[in-house]
């Protein structure tokens, strides 16, 4: 690789502490510049993802200067991310909870201290440096009315369904754009996004101004400059449906932006989609005459609902909106909507958007503690190869000779090409192995058993443990394209797991 080539780091590379990215300043500067250009030129994406990535890069790189383990390195990475969120929104609690829910696999009480310091530092910098330049801040909130709880419950279910739509649509569009490469990908994204922005100007940029307009009950501002303005403004019903349409189309706008080469995140788009869903929900119910709901409250609460449904981080959504609004007046509806949205989203789509993207890229990162520790274990590290192989066309005499020269009680049977044909267990032949009259008449093929399960060298540890559990075996042969490689022992895996658990 040429020395002049700049590598753009990703959060998964920093997660692993890849030493190639010690020069984080180049990658971070590139990340900040491209994200600013993307949003500044109208890209329908958010700035929070680059902020989190840059903060994570700084934390991970700082850790690389000290002889610390994986756990502390990951904690410093999470501190950088927490500080980034806290600074962007002046929301220190949300920053800490984001790190706990999204980034950290295993959390101990001691981890809270550095995270709290990072969140407080970020919020302090936000107050001193950004002042009024915080990404999103809103103070006008109507007092919570417990009579509206049934509507908040319904809103939570709706937010969960829309979150599932968001994740699935984004992943499918990502697959479509993966087929197109180079300049064609960029041109397709620009043309599609440009067409959407022409019809729906609210899709321009990250959308925070549109969120404020909706929270202040100014929905017509979303269509200002649109050729469809008169059509959308002809009735109250049309306004409510048009705002809902903007929220749903925002999903496609951000997908076109990011999958055609733009740099940004889904955080801000999720908030805009949520505000559109919440506003149209309350606005249409009010228009129907059923009751009178505070559109600003439903707009803000639905933002948390979409955010938690997409990222499966309910606490982050609840406290982010609480801190943005400057109080906890909406804490009860926030908890109701976030919990229901997350439950519906998890039921229909078990993986969050970030997990789905990592899954699509075949990343080994796991968000479950046990699975994560297993993912750190390498099959090559404990594949045992000291088993004596026996040719398939040999007889009992050669098998007894192999037994005499082996310390194992399992003998893999292979053909001329080295492919695994079967397995012989010492316990199964103990009665005949001392009968010398059978040495030349009994063949290995008659004694062997076909393996009920095998492990491929490319299987990850979660798949391997599942095979151990289903088969009930303690030793399973390992193959590469059908050729025998060795055996793996369940006791060895468990022993390594316990060691790794202690080290973490």
**Can you summarize the main beta sheet?**
4 strands, mixed
Task: State the end-to-end distance.
Answer: 34 Å
Structural class: mainly alpha
**CATH secondary-structure class of the largest domain:** Mainly Alpha
Question: Concise description?
Answer:
The chain is mainly alpha-helical and 504 residues long. The chain is 60% helix and 6% strand.
Overview of the molecule:
Helices cover 60% and strands 6% of the residues. Strand 5 (455-456), helix 21 (461-471) and strand 6 (475-480) form a beta-alpha-beta unit. Mean pLDDT is 81; it is low at 1-25. The chain has 504 residues and is mostly helical. Helix 13 (295-311) packs parallel to helix 15. The chain has 3 domains: 11-133, no CATH class; 146-365, Clc chloride channel, CATH 1.10.3080.10; 372-503, Roll (CBS-domain). The chain is elongated, with a radius of gyration of 29 Å. It has helices at residues 11-15, 24-40, 48-64, 70-89, 92-103, 112-130, 149-179, 182-199, 208-215, 229-232, 236-259, 267-288, 295-311, 314-324, 331-348, 353-360, 369-375, 396-404, 426-429, 444-447, 461-471, 490-503, and strands at residues 383-384, 390-391, 410-414, 420-425, 455-456, 475-480, 483-489. It contains 22 helices and 7 strands. The relative contact order is 0.09. The protein starts with 10 loop residues before the first helix and ends with a helix. The chain has a 4-stranded mixed beta sheet.
